[in-house]
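Table S4 entry, Mevalonate kinase.
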Amino acid sequence: MKITERRMTRSIGVGQAHSKIILIGEHAVVYGYPAIALPLLHIQVTCQIVPAERPWVLFENDSLSMAVYASLEYLGIEEAAITCQIDSMIPAQRGMGSSAAVSIAAIRAVFDYFKRDLSQETLEILVNRAEMIAHMNPSGLDAKTCLSDQPIKFIRNVGFSELEVDLGAKLVIADTGIHGHTKEAIQKVKELGAAALASFHEIGLLTEYAEKALAQKDAFTLGRILTDCHHHLQAVGVSCPEADQLVELALGSGALGAKMSGGGLGGCIIALAADQEHAEMIAKELRNKGVEELWIESL
């Protein structure tokens, strides 16, 4: 039976979610090789649901709008006079899971506003529904990682698994300042055809080696693996000059390894540092070269 929002509600509903970054395996994952993504627990988005004068309106191809709509539909609430207020630390279109994190935060906020319990299973179903609107056929890796406090390994047609990671190292994440262009990057790969497959095979092997290095707490080996992966991503044309320059700068500043991250042709780079002091030194050099958005995360 449908109900209206006249059910007792909070004056405000609040939901939060965190960001993510791809450690290794981007693009190759499309061809059946593994990818590893990391939750970024301290880079967050907060959504507040507050009363409004008019009912909520669904906008097509918008994951936030769809997340709210899917939540209301699940709760059986019609014509909810509410609106969203978003406060996000996550830059959009940088490969950091902004869309998935906003959807998760919005769903949590709607359920909080209407004082309804929200299971992890229901949350995952609703956020994946919203992500399908925004990205047509997403792998689900962004949503899975933004919902987890553990690194996630993903293999297409196999599924997800959590990884235990306690490397004791730091990851420096630097924004190139350029929106990522995943669709264009994928098209460039398709145009290469068979020539790209050899690089993806190597990236697949590197991802497996990276998983072993994480398990063995071998930061130095992991660093070399990340740099090798960047060279393969360069070879298939999905990096960009700005990312390449930041990778070289990080390596020149003593990073154990560095690479682009995400869909490519923009977005972020990641650099592995041995410890906090090392990470801050790399970050200082990157800032001196004009990087405005930068984060240091434990790995």
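The first strand starts at residue 3 and ends at 4.
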